[in-house]
Structure to design on (406 residues):
């Protein structure tokens, strides 16, 4: 009953202010009601430059330790979207905002507290708060900056190297106005999105694809792509990913569905349409049906754990085959070396020595001429030159003459 009263009162959330960080890089729309300031978890994350999970974790700790009472700092905002449906969003007051801020960004929290105190003082005295940057339409809680930021996020997701299903969950988390990681709808969506995509493309869940296609006797044990493909080795980390077993046609179909999802998200942001968690869940099913794909109604017949265990068993068999076929970089270099060596014809030893002698003589002559040029003296004279056969006799004669002189 208490919650219903809260919801009924939230139609007065029509006044809001625009807070800009000191460096001017972040602008956040702040709700103003009942002499207090209010923010969603998403805007709190933007304010302090952290992710929503971090904000959620700190709020949970704040409530569990008794620092703040959850009922006293939370209010529910009910929004009617363009589709006529009503969505409830949690808002947190200034006490909760500051408590989170001091845990993640104390400098920013201090600056925000000073600004907020001045705003509330002005509001209490005058009955309203002056804001030069207030958006033109005070009844629209999602301004132009909100949708420009959404577009930037969507384009970042599109260009990322994340897997197909991760891009879908990124859109859900970053583009849902009421995103809450602890809500049951979020847990269910994250748990089923991968299987929904694989089932739509192949008629099998991720676990069923792995268990039905992995085979140590097949080329590449049934994988069509892996981290080091096509020439690199298959590793254990490759075999538990269902996408690695999909053929080219299936991969193309998967890519088309994800692209359609991203295109839709971008189009809605450009049109200024606010979307909620429930919208993204429904849209995924709608896109699958539009492409005449069957919608998965359960979790499949094979668990992920069983599929991975089967794949690992097949991998142990395949690894023996792979090791025999494996040619390392070293092996390839040795082969090249042997091949190049076989191209040369061994020279006749006598001819080889003669050529070496000629080459050595030329080097010695060049060195002699250079030395004579530097010293101005001839190195070879009639006295020090004798044919090799008489060299020993000459040296002996010199030694004898030297002994006689003494």
């Amino acid at each position: 009953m208490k919650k219903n009263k809260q919801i009924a009162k939230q139609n007065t959330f029509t006044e809001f202010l625009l807070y800009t960080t000191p460096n001017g890089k972040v602008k956040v729309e702040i709700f103003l009601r009942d002499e207090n300031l209010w923010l969603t978890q998403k805007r709190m994350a933007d304010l302090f430059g952290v992710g929503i999970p971090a904000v959620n974790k700190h709020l949970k700790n704040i409530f569990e330790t008794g620092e703040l009472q959850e009922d006293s700092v939370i209010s529910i905002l009910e929004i009617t979207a363009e589709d006529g449906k009503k969505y409830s969003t949690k808002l947190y007051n200034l006490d909760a905002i500051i408590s989170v801020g001091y845990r993640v960004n104390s400098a920013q929290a201090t600056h925000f507290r000073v600004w907020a105190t001045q705003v509330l003082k002005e509001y209490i005295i005058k009955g309203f708060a002056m804001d030069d940057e207030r958006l033109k339409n005070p009844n629209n809680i999602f301004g132009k900056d909100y949708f420009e930021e959404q577009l930037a996020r969507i384009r970042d997701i599109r260009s990322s190297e994340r897997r197909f299903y991760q891009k879908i969950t990124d859109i859900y988390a970053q583009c849902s106005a009421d995103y809450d990681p602890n809500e049951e709808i979020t847990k269910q969506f994250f748990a089923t999105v991968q299987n929904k995509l694989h089932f739509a493309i192949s008629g099998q869940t991720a676990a069923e694809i792995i268990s039905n296609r992995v085979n140590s006797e097949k080329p590449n044990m049934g994988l069509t792509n892996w981290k080091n493909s096509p020439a690199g080795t298959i590793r254990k980390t490759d075999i538990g990913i269902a996408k690695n077993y999909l053929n080219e046609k299936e991969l193309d179909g998967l890519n088309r569905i994800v692209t359609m999802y991203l295109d839709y998200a971008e189009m809605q942001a450009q049109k200024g349409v606010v979307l909620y968690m429930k919208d993204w869940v429904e849209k995924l099913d709608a896109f699958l049906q539009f492409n005449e794909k069957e919608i998965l109604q359960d979790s499949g017949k094979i668990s992920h754990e069983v599929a991975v265990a089967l794949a690992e068993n097949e991998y142990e068999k395949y690894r023996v085959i792979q090791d025999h076929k494996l040619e390392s970089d070293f092996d390839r270099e040795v082969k090249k070396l042997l091949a190049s060596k076989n191209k040369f014809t061994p020279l006749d030893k006598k001819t080889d020595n003669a050529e070496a002698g000629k080459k050595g003589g030329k080097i010695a002559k060049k060195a002699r001429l250079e030395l004579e040029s530097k010293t101005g003296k001839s190195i070879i004279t009639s006295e020090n030159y004798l044919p090799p056969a008489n060299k020993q006799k000459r040296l002996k004669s010199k030694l004898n003459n030297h002994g006689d002189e003494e």
User: Anything to note?
Assistant: Residues 1-14, 125-141 have pLDDT under 50 and may be disordered.
